[in-house]
Amino acid sequence: MSEETPATVLIVEDDESLRDFLAIVLSREGYRTAFASNGKEALASVAASAPSIIATDMMMPDMGGFEFIKQAQADFPEIPIIVITARKFDPAMKRDLENEPNVVAVLGKPLVFPKLVQALLTASKK
Asked: Assign residue 90 a region: left if phi > 0, alpha if psi is -120 to 50, beta otherwise?
């Protein structure tokens, strides 16, 4: 992430209070933010102005995380994705998600912010 142009993180989260909280935290870390409340909104947002990084929930209305990630990877293969979810995965499913080409991290809720910052740094280098 360059100092002149901060990276933009698209936060895809249906919980408005968590979106707002993430925006505050990310802005303090030097990131700009954009928002979508589900996968359909997120795909439209990415098409309109491609973010540097996508941080997405998995359980959302209209288009959930799995479908969104598959479509985002197909349409925007250069954008890294951070998964932030309260969903508990069995080990095989978590491994499959972590092995998706664009997914750089799978983080649980409640968030551990040093892990989020590390995931953002990793995504910024991708």
From this structure: beta
Q: Which residues pair with 108 in a beta bridge?
A: 85
- The torsion angle over the Cα atoms of residues 94, 107, 55 and 77, rounded to 10 degrees, is -40
pLDDT in tens, 49-107: 999 999 999 999 999 889 999 999 999 999 999 999 888 878 888 888 989 999 999 99
What single letter denotes the amino acid at residue 105? Answer: A
Say if pTM beats, i.e. exceeds, 0.85. yes
And the tokens for 125?
A: 């280098």
Phi, psi angles (nearest 5°) of residue 76: -135, 65
CA dist., res. 67 & res. 80, Å (int): 16
- Residue 30 burial by Cβ neighbours in a 10 Å radius (0-12, 13-18, 19+): exposed
DSSP structural state of residue 38: S
Structure tokens at 10: 């698209």
